[in-house]
Design goal:
5-stranded mixed β-sheet, 14% strand, alpha+beta
Length: 381
């Protein structure tokens, strides 16, 4: 990473933890009831500080194992004890600490949010209100994709299929973010519907950059449904440069949407899966943002700065954060002047349409943008 804050936060803010020894636990989705889920969320205002400390402790262990990896901003699994000359007991202790740190930041259980049942008239009114966000999207976001209506419907169906795989098919009444990681698309869509039996309606779409395989330290962006929750507290960029003069998190104050530890597919060597820290964030506004539309990240989802600010200002996926605010908690990561939408959601869904050709509505960046890419640009996630 490029950011001083990123380096200070260590394992908490950056994907990928990987390595063959010791084995790190892969997270699996389980299920909790809504009351238990809400109790967990309300308790987070103090809990996440402890999580930061645990992650930082793990980063310290990993740094001892691999200084070169830490220098690049990545945190990797510790080598085998023999490679370090560490006594077996110490190695076991380090492995236990690493496992405990990862367990502390495990993904939350996915639970279908409960919204009030609406009459048809109320649903129609909710839809009209939510779709007003289209005007704000067109006004505020400067990198937009003009998706044909047939494609909007097709992606709405892909979104529904992905939600049904996680028993979230009845989701409605809140915004959802959908990302197509296909090499020939690289796009983000915001959707809404008021009732479970209605089709998903697109609010807006923008180009993104997801994980580019073929080089060490590059993951494929993970597929599935990911919850944006204070269990993995967001933070903000300082806007500082890395060693290659790249602002990997974008300009100062850009919000990094942290989705926690996930199983990421390695895009190098023999493949396989390892732990990575999955995030959605802005990128260097001058050198890398013009490249949105092609795979170019190390596994995270890069988005335009204006889209980042739009999602942040209106709380498009801040439902869980707002629950803490409603409970009287103060979160420094939230701006005081934001205008939280009544339809704030919490899910980011990643699919791969595996399209063989690039659609006209999602053009790739031109030769001029590619020619301005500096050396080492791919080292910034």
């Amino acid at each position: 990473m490029n950011d001083n804050f990123s380096r200070r936060m260590g394992a908490r803010v950056r994907g990928g933890v990987r390595g063959d020894a010791p084995k790190l636990p892969h997270h699996k989705t389980q299920w909790l009831g809504a009351p238990a889920r809400r109790a967990i969320v309300i308790a987070l205002s103090t809990w996440f500080y402890a999580s930061w400390a645990a992650s930082a402790a793990y980063a310290s262990d990993a740094a001892t194992a691999s200084g070169a990896h830490v220098a690049s901003g990545a945190v990797h699994g510790a080598p085998k004890p023999a490679a370090l000359g560490v006594p077996p007991a110490s190695a076991a202790s380090s492995a236990s600490a690493a496992s405990a740190a990862l367990a502390a930041s495990a993904p939350p259980e996915l639970v279908l949010p409960v919204h009030r049942m609406l009459t048809p008239e109320e649903a129609a009114e909710e839809t009209r209100g939510a779709l007003e966000m289209r005007k704000r999207f067109a006004r505020d976001v400067n990198r937009r994709l003009h998706v044909p209506l047939a494609e909007q419907r097709a992606y709405g169906q892909r979104l529904q299929a992905a939600l049904e795989e996680k028993n979230l098919g009845a989701l409605a009444g809140e915004y959802v973010i959908l990302v197509d990681r296909s090499a020939n698309v690289q796009a983000l869509f915001i959707y809404f519907r008021a009732m479970p039996d209605e089709p998903w309606l697109m609010i807006g779409a923008s180009p993104v950059a997801t994980g580019r395989p073929g080089e060490f330290d590059h993951f494929l962006t993970p597929l599935g449904v990911f919850e944006h929750t204070p269990l993995n507290m967001d933070f903000r960029a300082e806007g500082t440069m890395n060693q290659n003069n790249i602002r990997g998190y974008g300009r100062r104050d850009m919000r990094i949407y942290d989705l926690g530890w996930v199983d990421g597919e390695r895009g190098w060597g023999k493949g396989g899966y390892s732990q990575m820290r999955f995030q959605m964030h802005a990128t260097d506004p001058d050198r890398l943002e013009p490249l949105l539309g092609i795979r170019h990240s190390k596994g995270c989802v890069r988005i335009p700065a204006t889209l980042n600010a739009f999602i942040d200002h209106y709380g498009i996926i801040d439902a869980e954060y707002q629950a803490l605010v409603d409970a009287g908690k103060s979160l420094w990561v939230l701006h005081s002047d934001r205008e939280i939408t009544p339809w704030a959601g919490r899910f980011i869904v990643v699919v791969d349409s595996e399209r063989k050709t690039r659609p006209a509505w999602s053009p790739a960046p031109g030769g001029k943008a590619r020619a301005k890419v500096p050396a080492g640009a791919d080292t910034a996630d």
